[in-house]
Amino acid sequence: MDRRVRKSQEAIMEALISLMAEKEFEKITINEIAERADVNRGTVYAHYTDKYHLLDLCIETHLDQLIASCMPLEGLNEPAYPTKDSLLRVFTMLEKHTAFYTTLLTSKGVPALRSRLLEMICLGIRQQYTDLQFPAGVDQEVRIQFMASATVGVIEWWFTNPVSYSAEDITGQLWAMLEQNQMLPGKQLV
Amino acid sequence: MDRRVRKSQEAIMEALISLMAEKEFEKITINEIAERADVNRGTVYAHYTDKYHLLDLCIETHLDQLIASCMPLEGLNEPAYPTKDSLLRVFTMLEKHTAFYTTLLTSKGVPALRSRLLEMICLGIRQQYTDLQFPAGVDQEVRIQFMASATVGVIEWWFTNPVSYSAEDITGQLWAMLEQNQMLPGKQLV
DNA sequence: CACATTCTGTCGGGTAACCGACAATTACGC
DNA sequence: GCGTAATTGTCGGTTACCCGACAGAATGTG
After folding, report:
1. Which of the residue ranges A9-13, A77-81, A123-127, B26-30 would you say has the lowest mean pLDDT?
2. Which Pfam family, any one of them, does this sequence belong to (chains A, B) (predicted)?
3. Domain co-membership, B109 together with B30
4. Could you read off the pLDDT of B67-120 as tens digits, one per residue?
5. CATH code: domain of residue B62
6. CATH assignment of the domain containing A15
7. Which residues of chain B are within 8 Å of residue A35 when distances are taken between CB atoms?
């Protein structure tokens, strides 16, 4: 992608996030976004039809990064199913964009991120677990919904609560709980 | 100035400073500068003939900012001669660009900044003191040189020493010494 | 309501940055 | 030494951004 396009988009998205931390989404104007991004107003319209479109792509971009971060690393002999390392990579990415996630998870009137996040995590789990054996007795889709909801809940709590664990800490705790509930195939496979 | 020009120049200058904090000036290449600035290599050449030119303009830009910061503020009834407030503005500006000044004042082989800084301060003092009475017995140019050298020395010490006073603190101390040596016209005028 | 102000979305002309390529020079390792 | 790689400085075609202007919609203030 052209260097200029990337810079403009990054600046515009960052501007929106920083504005959303100050005032509610509906009160934000394209003018403000352009000004904060230090970009001509026309440039905003060149990339996005309106601020709703911008918000959508903003979410999409961050979730894509999140997906990429939990993909098994090539050359490191990582298995195709989730590991504690891949989970840590996700939380590290979340931590890196704290401003974005705290804003969009707490900002009232814009619950768009939470549902997209849950959706994304379900999809990720479903893909990674497709070839694996699970303990019997529970429908696989129910199990996936269970795990995804629990994970999203922990993420939300992590961002909205003043007590701030590090990415390593929270990863360790979440992983322990998932293991404790025998919802990871590790024990069957390793 | 065109928004794009400003952004490019800021990015390039900042890249040079950050590189100078890591390696000596002669080892730095245009490629590295462009890469760090996230700018096409051609853009560097569009603004500067070579890295020496870039370093010069870099120094010039920062000194211009410094000069602007010590100008008497309009509308605040500030006198035309230096005040403690104007000195504080200078140190605040210095503090704001700590990375630049510490790098350029400590980096061996590039004593360009120190001499330009002394020169600039002499000029500033000479201009601001042009209409004022001084205690007799000392040539005015000698006095100016004395004050400027002392000031530059304090600035150098401020940046190169691990003990870090705030801009307010160091301003207070320097002002006290200048007053103590009766080198400020304040007592004669006020 | 009338009025002023701000915001919106779009357009066209101008310009700076991008990118890839090039030959010439310098730096480096065998 | 000699060959390879990196750096330098320049160029031309392409693209994205800037800027000012515009009419229409929305907002808000008397």
Report:
1. A77-81
2. TetR_N
3. no
4. 888 776 665 566 666 678 888 988 999 998 888 888 888 766 667 788 888 888
5. 1.10.357.10
6. 1.10.10.60
7. none
Show which residues on chain A lie within 8 Å of chain B, measured between beta carbons: 3, 7, 38-40
Query: Can you tell me the distance from the alpha carbon of B142 to that of B164, in angstroms, rounded to the nearest whole number?
Result: 30
Chain A window 25-84, residues with Cβ within 7 A of nucleic strand D: 38-43, 46-47
Same domain, A68 and A36: no
**Domain membership flag for residue A187:** no
pTM here is 0.77
* Residue pointed to by tokens 């959706």: A119
Contacts of B4 (CB under 8 A, 6+ apart): none
Within-domain flag for B127? yes
Q: Is the CB of A47 under 7 A from strand C?
A: no
Q: Are residues A60 and A43 in the same domain?
A: no
Could you tell me the two tokens for A180?
Answer: 């404790």
Could you give the 3-state DSSP secondary structure of residue B31?
Answer: helix
Give the mutation candidate from B1, B3, B9 for the A interface (greatest A CB count, under 10 A).
Answer: B3
pLDDT at A190: 35
Cα-Cα-Cα-Cα dihedral sign, residues A71, A75, A79, A82:
negative
How many Å apart are CA A86 and CA B105, to the nearest integer?
Answer: 45
For chain A, the domain total comes to 2
Report the range of poorest mean pLDDT among A79-88, A140-149, B96-105: A79-88
**CA–C1' gap, A114 and D26, in angstroms:** 31
Residues contacting B158, CB < 8 A, separation 6+: B94, B164, B165, B170
- Domain range for residue A105? 56-180
- Let me know if residue A153 belongs to a domain: yes
B41 CB and strand D closer than 7 A: yes
Least confident of A57-71, A89-103, A135-149: A135-149
Q: Are residues A40 and A74 in the same domain?
A: no
Considering only CB atoms, A38 lies closest to which of B3, B39, B40, namely B3
Chain A hits for B3, CB-CB cut-off 8 Å, are: 38-40
